[in-house]
Amino acid sequence: MSTNAPPPIFKDILNTLEADIIFGRLRPHQELIEDSLMERFNAKRHIVRAVIQELVSRHIVVKPRSRSARVKDFTMQEVNELYEMRALLQREAIHIMPLPATACALDELKQIHAKYEEAIHGHSDPWVIHTLNDQFHLCLFSLCNNNTLCKAITFYTEATNPIRSYGITDPAWLSQALDEHASMIAAIESQDRATLATLVVSHIQPTKMRWEALRRHN
Fold this sequence. Notes:
Layout: H1 8-22, E1 31-32, H2 34-41, H3 45-57, E2 61-62, E3 69-71, H4 76-96, H5 103-121, H6 126-141, H7 147-159, H8 161-164, H9 171-189, H10 193-202, H11 205-217
Antiparallel strand pairs: 1-3, 2-3
């Protein structure tokens, strides 16, 4: 085991704060005060600072010089640019993806889809649903066999987590997401690259449009 591996409490705090941001318990511009977080999680300062730095690196928290970290607020232009990058990278992953996919890879994707469906129908915790959704897409894009491209897709996906969260608990969106995941699997099985490329881009638009509508309303 690497001696540089972060302690378990680091991951626990990171997941908790990320979920708080994603699901609106921590709102844009809200401060992340080190002393308060140390007390909340019974953690040492260097752990809390490392967690904040990781959230900064994921572009969902900002840390101005000599000021407390704050939950990031997005401009319309930033959101558009992030989603343009996601669309570009995801289309490229489909473009270079070897088809047909292996039976083993397809089986793994179907298993994750089944767990996602079960979590939605079982009204699981939103974080569980969110995590399984990300696992599905990570598994799907890994079929392109380009680790660097997959890391870039993951980076921009994580950067849009607070935007994506606006649809994560909406029953209509979850039903649509399930149907679209199933259609992606079917497109891979039928080696329909064009349909798959269209699906992976159209799939990310509803939560963006929901965020934009709410921002205009506010």
